[in-house]
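so my prof wants the structure for this chain in the tokens format not the other one, which i didnt know existed until like an hour ago. anyway here's the sequence
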Amino acid sequence: MTEVVMDKSKLVCLRCGGTRFWGPRKNSENTYGCASCGTTVSVPIYGSCVICGGKFRKRGRKRTCSDECSCILKRQAFKNWYRVNKKVVYRNCVICGASFVRNGPSLTCSEVCSKERQRRYQKEYYEANKKFLQVTSIIYWRLNRIRLIQLLGGVCVWCGFSDLRALEIDHVEGGGRADQVKHGGNGKMCLHYLNHPEIAREKLQVLCSNCNSIKYRESRGV
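here's what i got, hopefully its the right format
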């Protein structure tokens, strides 16, 4: 580290304005006294920051110019210390019990065991909160159905009936059951068409319960 000490000839006494100083004192290498009035003056020492190289007023054992550079220096020191003093820690996998080298907060030895642990956690969480999850799931899929009905117009295309309690989603060209099986259920089918509104308007329409029953019987020739 380079140190720059202020020149004694550039000092000016703030009490009498004198420019002649004696010193430094024995107990302090940077303390001078005015030759006229005896006022003591401490000359600051400047050093270079070990991180950014900027000049700063040195106080004690300080090596950096700011808090940011100080944090960087601490992180570097910790990394160096960890590189020299790190220890290999072994632990047993919570799934298969195999011993493995610990890497951070990991509790499993492999990706397979990690997925198995996640599956078990999800199963335990579902068993503990089954009733709540079932209610929220029903509400979620019912809201998606209502959103899809509103996307398609919200009224029966045959008679103009508009009460949501009796409106149903109908496939224009039939094949509703096969479409549900294709998407994995009625709820997922509604979610698919909500994400693709243009396809929904081409393939789907809204009918009330009566009109939907009439259409079904007419298609069967009843």
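also thought this was worth mentioning. The mean pLDDT is 84.
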